[in-house]
Structure prediction request, 247 residues.
Amino acid sequence: MLNYKLPKNIIFACTAALLLWFATPAASTENYPLFEAVYKAKIKIAGGKVRLSTTKNVNGVYTFEYMVIPGKLISLLTSGELKETTQFEVIDGRPRTLDYTLTNTIGSKPRNGHVTFDWTENSIKGNYKQNIIDIPMPENAVDRAMLQLVLMADLKNDDLKEQYAVYDKDEFIPINVERIGTESVKVPIGTFSTVVLRHSSKDGSSETLLWCAEELDYLPVRIQSSDDGSKVLVANLSTITGSLGNR
Prediction:
């Protein structure tokens, strides 16, 4: 039997590669609060729920899930679900999308998609429906679901941007954001002092108001969305568990 010894330079290279592998960005991502928030919602003319939650995966990466749960009336008329799932890391206290998945099976035409955010190449790649996605990543890029966590972080860090590039379905859409005041609001879970944000499309046709509670790390306790002046969603926080703010 041959008694062959590996050269020292190869042993060194292999050892260095293993050290780099164990020190991947995913494993070194910063801590982020884990929580689940459920909102009592009115979706157009019917009732339902909205659920937001964060979990930590075994590889150190986090998962954020945004889910719309139709009420009984909508469930009688149609089946399916609307769920957006983001795998993210935390850099300098700010969430950053790694992968985004859309699952929308409500109605007769499913609208599903999955993309990966490549922060080295500044591009995103994946698919939406049957279409291939391969587009450059603009400044302040964020997926549609992750926008909520990014706004919370930017408010907390006093670094709110005037505009974000929001990935929606198969493209980035510029969304303008402004802080319009403060307000005390009462929701099913209690009364909160809030900062009110408005984010809107460039042409102003769609708009969302967020009442963000400092006590809960600026989680919105009320969400109100409108299209062409008509309300399509009003959601009020009804339960919360986890480690946000002082809870």
